[in-house]
Amino acid sequence: MEKQQNIQDGFLNSLRKEKALVTIYLMSGVKLTGRIRSFDKFALILDNNGMEQLIFKHAISTVLLNRANNSAAPAGTSGG
Predict the structure, then answer these.
(1) pLDDT tens-digit readout, 20-52
(2) What is the pTM of this model?
(3) How many domains, in total, are found in the chain?
(4) What CA–CA distance (Å, rounded) separates 69 from 53?
């Protein structure tokens, strides 16, 4: 029987494989940006311009895919 992948692992794995730029918001409100290098049951490694950060999943609030990598302002806000 094949082990079914949960939605969290599927989402994180697709972001990792695509080397997609993501924004991660922590429960404390801190905003982190980078690419997901790897992850496991408890944590993930975020690569930001060669600097790797170990982030524990229990501290994460939201993971967002940055579709417009060149945008200066987040969606829904004006840039100037």
Answers:
(1) 999 999 999 999 999 999 999 999 999 999 999
(2) 0.77
(3) 1
(4) 20
